[in-house]
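TICKET: design request
STATUS: open
ATTACHED STRUCTURE:
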């Protein structure tokens, strides 16, 4: 497992400011792997039914976790994730929680309002220059060709089919859930036009 030390330090610094850190980022940017690489954490995958059952009683779970560092991956799978994080921030400040989840949840007004002032937001970007060193491949041209998502960057061949699957998942699980859009072909065309102009000046009026 590659150690993304730059991002690990960012998380540790955020934990010094708030007990709850919200780690956001696009799909397959590496949130899960980064979370699992943190030292001395207990990792919980909220997509697993047994984990969701365990977290149905937030207070009991948090009482057992006193003083620990916890990762709640895919926290949006819980029935009421904002409630759990609010209880943790208000009543169990000795617990350090890193929560990851859908960008749909992070963008929702209820989630933002409930946790206002109680969490630190950290946006995990596609790979930056320091990540190239961590992944032991510092060729910038290679990075520009493959993009900044670790699975695509590390693939032995250009994963065109994986790119399309990523777009399909982004459309189905993020765009439609958040904005209720129906015209998938328009989004696909928009992304293609943006890709062609990558590195140039973005003029929104040209795409209106």
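STATUS: resolved
RESOLUTION: sequence designed for all positions
ATTACHED SEQUENCE:
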């Amino acid at each position: 497992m590659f150690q993304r030390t730059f991002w690990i330090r960012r998380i540790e610094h955020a934990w010094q400011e708030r007990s709850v850190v919200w780690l956001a980022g696009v799909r397959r940017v590496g949130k899960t792997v980064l979370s699992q690489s943190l030292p001395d954490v207990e990792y919980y995958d909220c997509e697993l039914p047994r984990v969701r059952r365990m977290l149905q009683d937030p207070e009991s779970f948090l009482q057992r976790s006193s003083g620990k560092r916890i990762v709640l991956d895919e926290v949006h799978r819980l029935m009421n994730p904002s409630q759990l994080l609010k209880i943790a921030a208000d009543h169990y400040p000795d617990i350090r929680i890193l929560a990851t989840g859908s960008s749909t949840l992070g963008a929702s007004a209820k989630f933002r309002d409930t946790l206002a002032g109680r969490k630190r937001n950290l946006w995990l970007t596609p790979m930056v220059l320091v990540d190239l060193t961590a992944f032991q491949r510092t060729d910038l041209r290679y990075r520009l060709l493959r993009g900044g998502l670790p699975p695509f960057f590390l693939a032995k061949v250009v994963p065109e089919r994986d790119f399309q699957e990523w777009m399909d998942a982004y459309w189905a699980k993020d765009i439609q859930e958040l904005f209720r859009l129906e015209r998938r072909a328009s989004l696909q065309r928009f992304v293609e036009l943006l890709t062609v102009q990558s590195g140039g000046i973005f003029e929104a009026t040209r795409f209106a």
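CLOSING REMARK: DSSP finds twelve helices and five strands in the chain. The mean pLDDT is 87.
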